[in-house]
Amino acid sequence: MKRWMALVCLLCCLAGACRAEEGVWYRQYWERTIAALASDDPNPVPEAMRISVRPDDVRSREAEQTEKDFANVLLLSTDAPEGEPNFGRTDAMLVCRVNLQTGDTYLLSLPEGAMAEVQGVPERIALRYINCFGGPLLAAKTINETLGLQINRYCAVNMAAFITIVDALGGVTMDLTEGEAEALDLNAGKNQLNGLQALKYVKLRRQGDGALRARALLEAVSRQALNGGTVNTELKLMDMLMPAIDTNMTTDDLIDLAFALFGQETPGKMATRGLAVKDGEMLDEEAAEMSRAFLYGKGD
Fold first, then answer.
1. Which of 247, 26, 25 is nearest to 121 (CA)?
2. Residue 270 has what DSSP assignment?
């Protein structure tokens, strides 16, 4: 019996030592990952460490039924290089909710520097890094769980796709400050930016908060896309842009969305709002209540 007890104790000690070694190794690996996220590494999270998310994990089937008359889409702009899988850092993140019966549209801007807990990630991370760990499905799942939303579709664009979209829309109008205009070799005030100019505008890190600029630009692009054209024109535009976009929206989804936004006799209203959460702060229940109140008109 004493020998057996000694053997059990020895095995327990060895197991504890192994866990300690694994913990030290994992800490070192995590620190390297954090350093990669803050660098220009196009793939900061190795493929083997990415979190797999199934479409059914994003939201419940009950939500699918209750939200059947709405499109709930997460819009992402990332720094993923051309031709790369879209696991880049997020420059801008918006939740778009469209009433498919009336065309009413709500755009909620999310602060990329705000923190959230992500299932499968050992520490809280900024929203801008979630896409690196599992792509748009993980981003949508995390936003749903953190803010209590019902997102079931996503549309993610990388740098090359972003240029294509802006050019296809005929450019986008932005109000430039003196510093921004000088950096882009343009005049201060309202300017029509082409795709390449719009991308340069987002990347003006020395002219203030690049994340806020990216969010403002994505809002402007969304507003411009929603404010003009007919159903046939927009369907042709969507068909042209689909190869450049990473999305889980089906052809039927796009047709429903096009008719809701551009097939109404009376165009639906459009409202925008941003969550006032500072960099480094957690998305809390107050932010969740504000999000639900804006998108759904209620606190639930």
1. 26
2. E
Q: How far apart are CA 200 and CA 89, in angstroms?
A: 17
Model confidence over 221-243: pLDDT tens digits? 766 666 655 566 666 666 666 77
DSSP character at residue 282: B
| DSSP-assigned states of every residue in 91-129 | EEEEEEEEETTT--EEEEE--TT-EE--TT-SS-EEHHH
Q: 33, 44 in Cβ contact below 8 A?
A: yes
Per-residue burial over 201-239, b if 16 or more Cβ lie within 10 Å, else e, is bbbbeebeebbebbbbbbbbbbbbbbeebeeeebbebbe
**pLDDT for residue 17 is more than 70:** no
98-112: buried (b, 16+ CB within 10 Å) or exposed (e) per residue?
bebeebbbbbbbbbb
Q: What one-character DSSP code corresponds to residue 41?
A: -
Q: Find, among 45, 60, 46, 33, the residue nearest to 141 by Cα.
A: 60
Token pair 């549209």 is found at 105
| Helix, coil or strand: residue 176 | strand
- Residues 23-49 have a mean pLDDT of 80
